From TrEMBL:
Organism in which the protein naturally occurs: Lentzea flava
InterPro entries: SAM-dependent_MTases_sf
Record protein name field: Methyltransferase domain-containing protein
Amino acid sequence: MTVLPQSMDALHRLSDAVDGFLRSEKEFNLGDPATQMLVGGRFRTLGTQIGAAALAGVPDEDIAAIVQPARSACARSPFMRSEQEWARGYPGDHQLVEHVMAQANGAAPGTLAWHVEASLQHSAITQQLRNRVMHQARLISDVLTAPRNGPHSVLLIASGAAPDLRLIPPGIVRPGDRFVLTDVDPDALSLAQKRLGLLNDFTTVVPGNVFRALGPLAELGPFDLVVVNGLYDYLNDRAAVRLTEAVLTRLCRPGSTFYFSCTAVGNPFRWPLEFLMEWSLIERDEAAVRALLPGRNVSVGADPTGLALLTHVRV
């Protein structure tokens, strides 16, 4: 096989970036928290060179082999190791979301892994996740505080441990209001119930794959607000269309709102996520989002980082 010159150049730059990242342990004072900026710079350079190698046509297996030492070093961060190993059996699980929302750092202080995790927790890729959760919390609050003729109902699909619902002040909930949570991971729903406090009295959980749970969910509806929490990042177009149609035709009340988010095209964190964390996301632009919703009243905007598209459908 002939290796193109641009591929060889990309391989050399990638190898240098890996070496530079690993040298951080010897060249920087890792006991100083401010070193996070220096380590973060080398981590970003590594991600850039992974992307450059992929775009230059370097086979994925060659890239993976070169970055393996850096991947192993990153695995000392519990945050990154959990994504490498898919501890819950799927990427982006509720434990990762809880970790990001808490802006925690589980790595040992004074280590390369600690600085990598700190850099990620201060980056746009984790901030966009927090932005999504905050936006969803506002949507729930808006529904509960809107003029009403009766109780309101909210469905959270792929709810995880419901970090958005947990931000709602119990005082705005009225008798008869109802929240329904569904998630494929029963442990996520158990954690939600442990942390919801007074809101548990208004909450029903439906465990299982959302496509198999449509019947039970429809029986609990219709809903004034349906929120899909990050699931579109992992659904191909066929599955996304299927879920979208089911939500709109079986779960939403006329005049309700359907909301979902997805990762925007051009995500600069794509390469380190895929090669260092085994975390692949399906990216969409506004046209691709609207193609899922032909003929619908759709509003598509971006979160403040520009990395997430926030889609609202008026039913």
